[in-house]
C-alpha cells in the first residue's frame, strides 16, 4: 500500500531499488555524511553517530556548578538555546567539524564551526583523516567526557547540557542501526549459486526450507517443483540473505539500571522503562502500559499515518506527470501561437513589420515565463517527492523491526515527521501555478493609421463556471447554488446566467442574471427534481454552460407562520409555530411556504378557546386582506368554525353548514390536493363536511384568521389521513 507512489512503469526489482536509493538520505548522519554508526537518539528525536556526538561536544564555563548542570539533566526545558556566543569561546573564522576527541578542558580554547552551523572544539588528540571516520576506536576506549559538557543538535540546533552519565545517557537507536545494516547488505555483491561446481553462476532464488541458493539451471535440475519439493517456498536471493542473517530480537536493558530489562512503557514520559524504574525511579507515579501492547499500537499509528502520506505521494507523482505534460502543451501552444502571429503580421504592410518584432518578443517572454514557472514547480515537487518516498521507505523498514523498545524510542518522532510531511502536501501544493494556454489573440482589423497602437486584446468568451457542490443545497422548496470561475482562467467575466428547468423535465429558463456567484431560488415545487446550470458572459459573448447539477427539493414541507407577512396584531411564540392576537377583531397570518403542486397536509391544535369565537382555517393568495376574517375576499378559501358548527367561505359566500365545533385541545386539519384541485378540512381526524372547494390552481399559502380569544399551534410534515387516496393526475404529487 505504501509503495503506490513508486514508478509503476518500472519492474518490481528496479522500482524497489530506486525506492531504496531514495531512502539513503534517511540513513546518513548529518555531521559526517556517512551511514550511521552506533547512532544515538537525542532528546529532540534526531539521530547522530556516537563518535560524531563526541566531536561536537562543547564544554560550558567552569563557573557553572555541577548542581545546576545536573538540575538541567537530559531534558532542558523546551531545549532552550544556550547563549554560547556570550562565553567568548569560539572563533567565527574557523569552519568544519573536528574529529574524535572534539572537546577541551579550558573555556578559552577556540572552537570550529561546521557547515550546518554547529560549533565544535578542535581535537585534543590526533585527528584522523575524514575518510577514516569508520575506523574510530571503540567508544569504551575513548577518553572520559569532561563535566559540564553540552551538545547541540546539528539539525534543529537545540542545545543540551549533559548529566553525569554523559553520552551514555542517550539511548541507542538499534532500529536505525538495523535498517542501515540491511541497506548495506542489499548493496553488497550478488549471491552465487551453491550447487554450481565450476564458476558459480549468480543465484536467482533461495529455498527457505532447504536454505540453499540456486541458479536457474540448478534449480530446475535439483529442486523441481513437484513431489515434496512443490511445497517449498522460493524467495529472491536478497530476501533470503536477509532472512538467513536475521538475528533474534535483542533484549533491551534500561539506561538507568543496566541489569534490568525494559518491560513496560511510561505513557507520560513516552519511553520504555524497567520494573526498578517503577519501584524506585521517577516513573513510580506515572501511567504505564505493557511494552508489547504499546509496540503494536504505535506500529498501527505509524502505518495509518503512512497511508495518508502514501496518498499524497501518489497524487504528487500524478501531479508531476501533469506538469511534464504541461511543458509539452506550452511548447506546442507557444509554437502555434507564434505561427499565427507571424502569419498575421506578414499579411500587413511594412509598418506592421516594425510592430511584429515587439509582439513576438512579448509572446516569447510569456512563453519563457510559463516554462520557467512550470519547470521550477517540477523541480520543487520532484525534490519533495523524493524526500517523501525516502521517508516512507525508512518508516517501512522501521516497521519491520521486532525490537519494541527500540521502535518506541523513535516511533513518536517518525509519526510526527510523517504527519508533518503529509501536511506539506496540503491544499494548493498539487495545483499548477501556470496554465498552458495563451489567452491572447491578435486583432488584425484596425486601420493602417492605428498600426502603431496594435497590441494583444482579449477576444475570448469566458470559460464554463465550476459549480461548488459543497455549497449547493436545498431546503424545503428553496435551492441555493454557488459557482466560481476555473482557477487558472484569466479571462474577464462581466456576469453570470443561472438557469433551472421546471422540475418536471421541461425546458430551462433563466432565474438569475448578474455578477454574483451565489443565488438562492425560492418558490420551487416540493418533491421535485430540478436541473440547474450556469454560464458566464463578457463583451465577447456568452461562454459554455457548466456541468448540470441535479437537485431534489424536500419530499415534505416543514414551515412556520410568517411574521413578515402577518398583520401587526398577530403575536408569535414557540419559534413562530404558535400564534395568538392582541385584537378583538379577526386578523390573518399566513405560512412561510407556498404550494403549487403535489398533495399537502398540515394541522393546527387549539391551545386556548374563550368566549366561543369563530377562527377560520384555509389557504390564501399572497395578497389576501389581513384585517378581516379569512374568506371574506376572493383571495382566500377557508372554513370558519365555532363551538357548535362550521361553514365554508370564499369571497364572503357562506356554504355547507355542518354540525360539530371546536373546543380547547381540538385539532383542525387542512388537506390541499393539487392533483385533483381539492381542499378538504378535518376536525379531530374526521372529515368536516363534504369537499370544501374544487378546481384550485396556482400558488397558495396556508393561512388562518383569529382574534384575542384564540391561540393555535401549527404542526407540519404530517402524513395524509388514511381515508384519503391522492389522485394520479400529477406524477410528482407529494405529502407534506
UniProtKB/TrEMBL annotation:
Main location: other
Pathway: Protein modification; protein ubiquitination
Coiled-coil positions: none
Catalysed transformations (reactions): S-ubiquitinyl-[E2 ubiquitin-conjugating enzyme]-L-cysteine + [acceptor protein]-L-lysine = [E2 ubiquitin-conjugating enzyme]-L-cysteine + N(6)-ubiquitinyl-[acceptor protein]-L-lysine
InterPro entries assigned to the protein according to its UniProt record, in alphabetical order: B30.2/SPRY, B30.2/SPRY_sf, Bbox_C, ConA-like_dom_sf, COS_domain, E3_ligase_FN3/SPRY, FN3_dom, FN3_sf
Keywords, ordered alphabetically: Cell projection, Coiled coil, Cytoplasm, Cytoplasmic vesicle, Cytoskeleton, Metal-binding, Phosphoprotein, Repeat, Synapse, Transferase, Ubl conjugation, Ubl conjugation pathway, Zinc, Zinc-finger
Domain Fibronectin type-III: 461-556
Quaternary organization: Interacts with SNAP25.
Keyword check for Amino-acid biosynthesis: no
Name of this chain's protein: E3 ubiquitin-protein ligase TRIM9
Positions of the B box-type domain: 188-237, 249-291
One term under GO cellular component: synaptic vesicle
Domain B30.2/SPRY: 538-723
Positions of the COS domain: 399-457
GO MF annotation, one: ubiquitin protein ligase activity
Record EC number: 2.3.2.27
Subcellular location: Cell projection, Dendrite; Cytoplasm, Cytoskeleton; Cytoplasmic vesicle, Secretory vesicle, Synaptic vesicle
EC category: transferase
UniProt xrefs under SUPFAM superfamilies: B-box zinc-binding domain (SSF57845), Concanavalin A-like lectins/glucanases (SSF49899), Fibronectin type III (SSF49265), RING/U-box (SSF57850)
Amino acid at each position: 500500500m505504501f509503495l503506490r507512489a513508486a514508478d509503476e512503469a518500472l519492474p518490481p526489482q528496479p522500482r524497489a531499488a530506486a525506492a531504496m536509493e531514495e531512502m539513503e538520505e534517511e540513513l546518513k548522519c548529518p555531521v559526517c555524511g556517512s551511514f550511521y554508526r552506533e547512532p544515538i537518539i537525542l532528546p529532540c528525536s534526531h539521530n547522530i553517530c556516537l563518535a560524531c556526538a563526541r566531536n561536537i561536544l562543547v564544554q560550558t564555563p567552569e563557573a557553572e556548578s555541577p548542581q545546576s548542570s545536573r538540575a538541567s539533566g537530559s531534558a532542558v526545558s523546551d531545549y532552550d538555546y544556550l547563549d554560547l556566543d556570550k562565553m567568548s569561546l569560539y572563533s567565527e573564522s574557523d569552519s568544519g567539524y573536528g574529529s574524535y576527541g572534539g572537546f577541551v578542558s579550558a573555556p578559552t580554547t577556540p572552537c570550529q564551526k561546521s557547515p550546518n552551523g554547529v560549533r565544535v572544539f578542535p581535537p585534543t588528540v590526533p585527528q584522523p583523516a575524514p575518510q577514516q571516520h569508520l575506523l574510530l576506536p571503540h567508544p569504551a576506549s575513548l577518553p572520559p567526557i569532561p563535566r559540564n559538557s553540552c551538545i547541540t543538535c546539528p539539525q534543529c540546533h537545540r542545545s543540551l547540557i549533559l548529566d553525569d552519565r554523559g553520552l551514555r545517557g542517550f539511548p541507542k537507536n538499534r532500529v536505525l542501526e538495523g535498517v542501515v545494516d540491511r541497506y548495506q547488505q542489499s548493496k553488497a555483491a550478488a549471491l552465487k549459486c551453491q550447487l554450481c561446481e565450476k564458476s558459480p553462476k549468480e543465484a536467482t532464488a533461495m529455498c527457505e526450507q532447504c536454505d540453499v541458493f540456486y541458479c536457474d539451471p540448478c534449480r530446475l535440475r535439483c529442486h523441481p517443483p513437484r513431489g515434496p519439493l512443490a511445497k517449498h517456498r522460493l524467495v529472491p536471493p536478497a530476501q533470503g540473505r536477509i532472512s538467513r542473517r536475521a538475528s533474534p530480537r535483542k533484549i533491551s536493558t534500561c539506561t538507568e539500571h543496566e541489569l534490568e530489562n525494559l518491560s513496560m512503557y511510561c505513557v507520560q514520559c513516552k519511553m520504555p522503562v524497567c520494573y526498578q524504574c517503577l519501584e524506585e525511579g521517577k516513573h513510580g507515579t506515572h501511567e504505564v502500559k505493557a511494552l508489547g501492547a504499546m509496540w503494536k499500537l504505535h506500529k498501527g499509528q505509524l502505518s495509518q499515518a503512512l497511508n495518508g502520506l502514501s496518498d499524497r505521494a501518489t497524487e504528487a507523482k500524478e501531479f508531476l506527470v501533469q506538469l511534464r505534460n504541461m511543458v509539452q502543451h506550452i511548447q506546442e501552444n507557444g509554437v502555434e501561437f507564434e505561427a499565427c502571429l507571424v502569419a498575421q503580421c506578414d499579411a500587413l504592410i511594412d509598418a506592421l513589420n516594425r510592430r511584429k518584432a515587439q509582439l513576438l518578443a512579448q509572446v516569447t517572454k510569456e512563453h519563457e515565463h510559463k516554462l520557467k514557472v512550470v519547470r521550477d514547480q517540477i523541480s520543487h515537487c520532484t525534490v519533495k517527492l523524493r524526500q517523501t518516498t525516502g521517508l516512507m521507505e525508512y518508516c517501512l523498514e522501521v516497521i519491520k523491526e521486532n525490537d519494541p523498545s527500540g521502535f518506541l524510542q523513535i516511533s513518536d518522532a517518525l509519526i510526527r515527521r510523517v504527519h508533518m510531511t503529509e501536511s506539506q502536501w496540503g491544499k494548493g501544493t498539487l495545483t499548477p501555478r501556470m496554465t498552458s494556454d495563451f489567452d491572447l489573440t491578435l486583432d488584425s482589423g484596425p486601420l493602417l493609421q492605428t498600426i502603431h497602437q496594435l497590441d494583444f486584446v482579449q477576444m475570448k468568451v469566458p470559460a464554463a463556471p465550476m459549480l461548488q457542490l459543497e455549497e449547493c443545497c436545498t431546503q424545503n422548496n428553496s435551492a441555493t447554488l454557488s459557482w466560481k470561475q476555473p482557477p487558472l482562467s484569466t479571462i474577464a467575466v462581466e456576469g453570470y446566467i443561472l438557469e433551472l428547468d421546471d422540475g418536471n423535465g421541461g425546458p430551462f429558463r433563466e432565474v438569475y442574471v448578474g455578477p454574483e456567484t451565489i443565488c438562492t431560488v425560492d418558490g420551487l415545487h416540493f418533491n421535485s427534481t430540478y436541473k440547474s446550470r450556469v454560464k458566464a458572459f463578457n463583451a465577447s459573448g456568452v461562454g459554455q454552460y457548466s456541468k448540470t447539477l441535479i437537485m431534489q427539493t424536500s419530499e415534505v414541507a416543514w414551515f412556520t407562520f410568517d411574521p413578515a407577512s402577518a398583520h401587526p396584531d398577530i403575536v408569535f411564540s414557540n419559534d413562530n409555530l404558535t400564534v395568538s392576537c392582541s385584537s378583538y377583531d379577526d386578523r390573518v397570518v399566513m405560512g412561510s411556504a407556498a404550494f403549487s403542486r403535489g398533495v399537502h397536509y398540515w394541522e393546527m391544535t387549539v391551545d386556548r378557546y374563550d368566549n366561543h369565537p369563530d377562527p377560520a382555517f384555509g389557504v390564501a393568495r399572497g395578497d389576501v386582506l389581513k384585517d378581516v376574517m379569512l374568506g371574506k375576499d376572493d383571495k382566500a378559501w377557508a372554513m370558519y368554525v365555532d363551538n357548535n358548527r362550521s361553514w365554508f367561505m370564499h369571497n364572503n359566500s357562506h356554504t355547507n353548514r355542518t354540525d360539530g365545533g371546536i373546543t380547547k385541545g381540538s385539532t383542525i386539519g387542512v388537506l390541499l390536493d393539487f392533483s385533483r384541485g381539492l381542499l378538504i378540512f378535518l376536525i379531530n381526524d374526521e372529515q368536516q363536511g363534504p369537499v370544501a372547494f374544487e378546481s384550485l390552481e396556482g400558488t397558495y399559502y396556508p393561512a388562518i384568521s383569529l382574534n384575542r380569544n384564540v391561540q393555535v399551534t401549527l404542526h407540519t410534515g404530517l402524513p395524509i389521513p388514511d381515508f384519503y387516496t391522492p389522485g394520479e393526475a400529477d406524477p410528482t404529487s407529494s405529502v407534506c
